[in-house]
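Hi U.,

Before I forget, here's the chain from the pilot set. I'm dumping it here mostly so it's searchable later in email.
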Amino acid sequence: MTNEEKALLLVGGGFDITIGGTAYTATPNPYQAAGVTRAIPRLGIPGTILTDGPAGARLYSDGLFATGFPVGTLLASSWDTDLMRATTAAMGNEVLEYGCDVLLAPGTNIHRNPLCGRNFEYYSEDPLVAGKMAAAFIRGIQSNGVGTSIKHFACNDQETNRDHNNAIVSKRALREIYLKNFEIAVKEASPLTVMSSYNQINGAFSQQRHDLLTTVLRGEWGYGGIVMTDWGDKAGTVKAVKAGNDLMEPGAKDEYERIIAAVNDGTISQEELDRNVRNMLEYIVKTPAFAGYKPSNKPDLEAHAQIARDAAAESIILLRNEGQTLPLNGNEKIALYGISAIDFVAGGTGSGDVVKPYVVNMRQALETAGFTLDSDLANFYQSYFDYTNAKNNLDPNNALMRMFVSTKLAEIEVPEAAIYAQAKDNDVAIIVLGRNAGEGSDRQIKADFELTEIERNLIEDVSAAYHQQGKKVVVILNIGGVIETANWKEYADAVILPWSPGQEGANAIADILTGKVNPSGKTTMTFPLSVWDNPSTRNFPYNSSKSPVAILSGMVSTLTGTSGKFAKEPQMNVDYTNYDEGIYVGYRYFATNNVAVSYPFGYGLSYTDFAYSNPKVKATADGLVATIDVTNTGQTAGKEVVELYVKAPAGGLDKPAIELKAFAKTGLLAPGKTETLTMPVSNYALASFNEQTSAWEAAAGTYTLLFSADAATPRATAAYKLAKPLSWQVDDVLGEEE
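Structure:
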């Protein structure tokens, strides 16, 4: 194998090149998938096909559709790794049968802040939940013989300037929060590939950090697959190769030329080149392409649609249910409000999108479920949807348009008089609030995290009118990321959170509304009272004249007569982001500082009740096993998630008030039935990272275990005593690079 051929193997195969008179054409990509690896026919090396993304195989080939599965945030809300694995097994079958070798997923970054535009692809603010869900996702996909690419490694926690932004993060926060999720998934599931992120970490690009990609990923964690770049062409190709970034995607001629020049002048050693080529070859021999698999192009989309529906229903969260408003009887006449009832958001935009065969909206789902809808109101929204899209020449079914452009329509005003008239003629009001989010941009505070004036008025007017008639109001949050709920939720009798639940998600919501499925999902992130309650917001991109920074600057300017520095709101995060909240992300911050929230981490209601009893802890060779009995004390069959938080003993490193260390979910418990849940925790999992010693350390003393319904609601406690301190030494790396 010549060095020229070796260099070709390290660069994506999307371009033609001639070497020594031999023409190497772009590797065929019949599905217009995200990228390919280079075929070298002389050596019998096939090309492989890499396709997006986290919600299913994204292909652009005439007549081919892939199932639009629920987004990552919703699947994680199930807190059910078996469900995740079964769902992604179906997803992986489509990857295989459509002739692809790697699904560029799962997205595993942390929900550092509610405004990240890509949170819908990710799982949680907590690295344990994110890591366990990612591991289950990987196992399901790879059970088909195809690969995954866990991403974006690491600290791709905002879309603004994601290509170059420098994430300035302490070593402790990196280890405990932003790498721990990847560590769990890599060790438990062995993804075939890892995707390095665009951004910098402490002054060096992720894809060019030897300490990240080789010292930690391969050395400490034992990873044996390949590392590929995110899609781009950075000038530091040579440094990336030396760092252990095996594959440059989507591939460019200048990347190939940089590698060859560096090999020729000795900057890249023969050993380094061969190491990466060996990794690539070991990857290729594990793919369906190498095995000569003949794809059918005919996965069972009907069966997979049912799997997607069932997964969504098992993951949907019930946030509020006053006076047992839900479930409904199924024969009510419903007034369906909100343009999102028609313009339903199945998934986000960008690489997380899927070319779906259809999307069921809420009008269709409720009618199919047997409800009678106020036809005049439903037709009002349908007419607005059709007219506005036609006027703006938008095709909401155009997959290419949806990739990086949201076609989501703004809410339309309904006259107050009409609402009061409708309240007399209908039994129940359902309001669907919609938000889309996606790759390439972050969310805004005004009219995105916060409600618009029209949305606020709609909730208030509908609630007033229907409550006057003694009737109930249900709000459905068809959203891609956390929104403000504290200022309006009490107007509603019930609130359902289905996130962006995939092509069959509206039918899944109907299953919850009718009680066909008892909701058992729980939040995997905190819903704050205000976005400014998150400490990360002060270091997150925003541009709001009403922000506290702007208000404070204006006050200083007025009082002192100054201008310039204090007269305007500073432009945030143009080149860097300070992660100065450290490890205090999400519930770790809110619980430690006793900050009130709208909905805590891990929160979700059921149509039945559960009791916890008989908490036990048994020491093992390397940690503990905790058990708890969960009994259904209500009148309806249901499932319960138990979250195991730990309070560390005093002394040692500064610690959050509580940290999640394990979780488990019951099966479907009939009324009166009990199940014992078992949750193992290693001593290593109890440890925190000490930057001074570059070691994970678990302090000696008594650890209090909290068996909880959510981060704010412990139901039972137990104790575990560690007789002596333990430590695990690691390399002192990941610091600032100039």
